[in-house]
Specification:
By secondary structure, this protein is an alpha/beta fold. The chain folds into three domains: 144 residues, Collagenase (Catalytic Domain); 174 residues, P-loop containing nucleotide triphosphate hydrolases (Rossmann fold), CATH 3.40.50; 104 residues, GMP Synthetase, Chain A, domain 3. Strands 6, 7, 8, 9, 10, 11 and 12 form a seven-stranded mixed beta sheet that branches. The structure holds guanosine-5'-triphosphate and magnesium ion (MG).
């Protein structure tokens, strides 16, 4: 991923992202950008090059060789705070950009051009020889002319395989809650990853299972609608510690009948290592070669260590098609904040309650007072039975306090402000079968 520091503009980030994909860079990189005026540029030229001139752009490359950008490959240029290899600095002269704009178009376009020009210098491009100049010019035009593209990806698979973890890992934000319990995800959640001119829209779905009540039916419908053709690409997630079942094979066979390219992710490789993948590959083999529609790629991953997540991301970026973005570039989910807050509280309840109340907890946000300081949030934690209420509250209210304070920390990170979270435990018998309660809690 391409990071920027200094005078960061959204368009610079977009252009850097396009260059990153175009040049097929690997690992995290960063450039520091300064947007300065004539006077500052003259000073900088005097100081660093002994020239008394206000030029339009200056680049200071830090690395000379391009290989995978890891801390190991670049021990001197790796910045742990950014988790990126610092490629160098660029200074852009805004006065020069405005002067040149009269000749080349708008000032905005000229600033972007200067950014791309400077960035390519930092990446080793040059225009001393005519041949190099042509190559650099072509790269500049390709980057500046790239159009926005997107793809919709349905993530499916058995409960607990790591679908939500995978979506969160690629999006880089927690859009979908994760727990060691199967059927953590109850609804279809959209996670959005935008980098450069590519936008990947994930539909994270509940794991497949047989419905027992109205909530289950709702979850089942969410899966079916993602499978029903509104996705451009399907990613089937398997858990390498569980192997591959007949249900998984059936799902793969079904999906291969459709037009959407199919990827298989074999997750949790940190737990078992690659040897556990071979039996899975052996079973998948018939679906990986042949004349008809086949699995496009099988990618072993670990959401825990981050292994190969970038490979999957790069593959999905290649699936993006013309037609612009589906969501604004700075959004990472289509879910309202209220829903995510409820989900965070539910995640903590699932986490701390172990198996005492299997899936019996629902969360309804009663109010969010953004005018108060800290922001005051009130929520109901809904359980099925009176006996469950006591378990959720715990001795001396220890359990509900634990759920509350852990949820509060995550919510504060999400909202980027201090939060006062008040939780009430309520008994609503058979709530999973009551449409009105399901509606209240956002399903
Ligand atoms: N060790 C390890 N654990 C993982 C990995 N990916 C996910 N997990 C864990 O597996 C459990 C299930 O992960 P989820 O992302 O909630 O799985 P899911 O497929 O979305 O599950 P449902 O929503 O219930 O269908 C959680 O405890 C995760 O922390 C991984 O790569 N390695
Ligand atoms: Mg999930």
């Amino acid at each position: 991923m391409f990071k920027l520091t200094g005078d960061v503009r959204p368009e610079f980030l977009r252009l850097a992202g396009i260059a990153y994909d175009m040049l097929e860079l690997k690992g995290n990189v960063s450039i520091d950008v300064a947007v300065i005026d004539d006077e500052e540029m003259r000073e900088l030229n005097n100081l660093t090059r002994g020239i008394d001139k206000a030029t339009d752009v200056l680049s200071y490359p830090a690395v000379t060789e391009i290989k995978e950008f890891t801390a190991k490959n670049y021990p001197d240029d790796y910045d742990p705070l950014q988790d990126a290899v610092v490629l160098g600095d660029i200074a852009i002269n805004i006065d020069a950009a405005n002067r040149q704009a009269e000749e080349y178009g708008t000032g905005e376009r000229e600033i972007n051009y200067l950014f791309v020009h400077g960035m390519l210098h930092v990446l080793g491009y040059d225009h001393i020889e005519d041949a190099d100049k042509k190559v650099m010019r072509e790269a500049e035009e390709k980057i500046l002319g790239a159009k926005d593209e997107s793809v919709v990806v349905a993530v499916v698979g058995r409960p607990n395989a790591g679908k939500s973890s995978l979506v969160n890992a690629i999006v880089g934000e927690k859009v979908s809650i994760v727990s060691p319990k199967p059927q953590t995800t109850r609804d279809r959640i959209t996670g959005i990853c935008t980098e450069g001119n590519k936008q990947i829209v994930f539909l994270d779905t509940p794991g497949m299972f047989k419905p027992r009540n109205k909530l289950d039916e709702h979850m089942d419908k969410s899966v079916k609608s993602s499978l029903g053709g509104d996705a451009d690409v399907i990613v089937v997630v398997l858990d390498c510690t569980k192997g591959i079942t007949d249900d998984d094979i059936k799902l793969i066979e079904e999906r291969l009948k459709c037009r959407a390219p199919l990827y298989v992710v074999v997750n949790k490789t940190d737990l078992r290592g690659y040897e556990s993948i071979y039996p899975i590959l052996a079973k998948l083999n018939p679906y990986m070669t042949g004349d008809g529609r086949v699995i496009k790629d099988v990618i072993p991953t670990s959401c825990r260590s981050g292994k190969n997540i970038d490979i999957l991301k790069a593959a999905l970026k290649k699936e993006c098609k013309d037609g612009g973005f589906l969501f604004p570039a700075d959004e990472y989910t289509d879910r309202p904040v209220k829903f995510i807050i409820g989900e965070i509280i539910r995640e903590k309840a699932l986490l701390f309650l172990q198996d005492e109340i299997p899936h019996g907890v629902g969360v309804a946000i009663v109010s969010i007072d953004e005018d108060s300081e800290p922001v005051h949030i009130t929520a109901d934690v809904i359980v099925d039975k009176q006996s469950h209420k006591q378990i959720v509250i715990g001795d001396d209210a220890a359990m509900i306090k634990k759920i509350g304070s852990s949820a509060r920390r995550d919510i504060e990170r999400l909202l980027d402000c201090k939060v006062f979270l008040e939780l009430f435990v309520k008994v609503r018998q058979g709530w999973r079968d009551k449409p009105s309660i399901l509606h209240d809690i956002g399903y």
